[in-house]
């Protein structure tokens, strides 16, 4: 006796595979656009873009002076500074030792930001209180950070 074997026709099988592929693509597209779109619209992260025009060491007054410009779309207020000495030691400069006019209101605005490391008790990040002694002829990296997390570094030779 001959076995009756009946299957799905090749045309119907092809149409089903195409429909499954289209449905899978729609689900992946919906997930990707929702996830990526949500990430782009959150607006998290730094909105200010800090740029150092120039900087120098004022040895007479023991000051690092940086001329900073804000190229971002949001205001920036400089609240922290870090100085890395030639040996790689990183010093945190308290906000009271940063000039009080360190707010860059809008894009394109710029002004001097003064960081006072000399003869003040700064805090070394890795080993407690110490005094940073700036030596002539050595390079120091000064990093300034705004309230939204934007930061910029600039190397100054004392």
Topology readout:
Layout lengths: L9 H32 L8 E9 L4 E8 L5 E9 L5 E4 L9 E2 L4 E7 L5 E4 L3 E4 L7 E8 L4 E7 L1
Antiparallel strand pairs: 1-2, 2-6, 3-4, 3-5, 3-9, 4-7, 7-8, 9-10
Give an overview in words.
- The chain is an alpha+beta fold and 158 residues long.
- It folds into 2 domains: 8-44; 50-157, Sandwich (Immunoglobulin-like), CATH 2.60.40.
- The chain is built from 1 helix and 10 strands; from the N terminus they run αββββββββββ.
- The chain has one helix at residues 10-41, and strands at residues 50-58, 63-70, 76-84, 90-93, 103-104, 109-115, 121-124, 128-131, 139-146, 151-157.
- The strands form 2 sheets. Strands 3, 4, 5, 7, 8, 9 and 10 form a 7-stranded antiparallel sheet that branches.
- Strand 7 (121-124) and strand 8 form a beta hairpin.
- 18% of the residues are buried.
Q: What features would you highlight for this structure?
A:
alpha+beta, Immunoglobulin-like, 3-stranded antiparallel sheet
Reading the helices and strands in chain order gives HEEEEEEEEEE
Number of strands: 10
CATH class category name of the largest domain? Mainly Beta
* Rg calculated over all Cα atoms: 29 Å
Name the beta content range. Answer: 35-45%
DSSP helix count? Answer: 1
Instruction: Tell me the major beta sheet.
Output: 7 strands, antiparallel
3D shape:
rod-shaped
Uncertain stretches: none
Gross CATH architecture of the largest domain: Sandwich
First and last CA, distance: 101 Å
Which secondary-structure class do the elements indicate?
Answer: alpha+beta
According to CATH, what is the topology of the largest domain?
A: Immunoglobulin-like
